Amino acid sequence: MGDNDKSMVAKLVGMGVTLGAAWVAHRVVELGWEKARGHKPPAPDSTDDDINFSEVAVAAVITGAVVALSRVLATRGAAKLIAR
Rounded to two decimals, what is the model's pTM? Predict the structure, then answer.
């Protein structure tokens, strides 16, 4: 397998791992939110009157941070695995 083929495989594997990690992280945040608050986290585009902005902001910050961290860890892990 040539270097270009390895590079393409590495990119595809990295992308798949990153997407999977982001999905898992989002799901973990959702389940944790449900357990702590008793309901699913509010959607950023929700127009329900009973959802206040602070709850939407907190949910967005937590979700964004956890998803970003999981993507970094997944990308680094995939890169180390492919380098072997």
Answer: 0.74
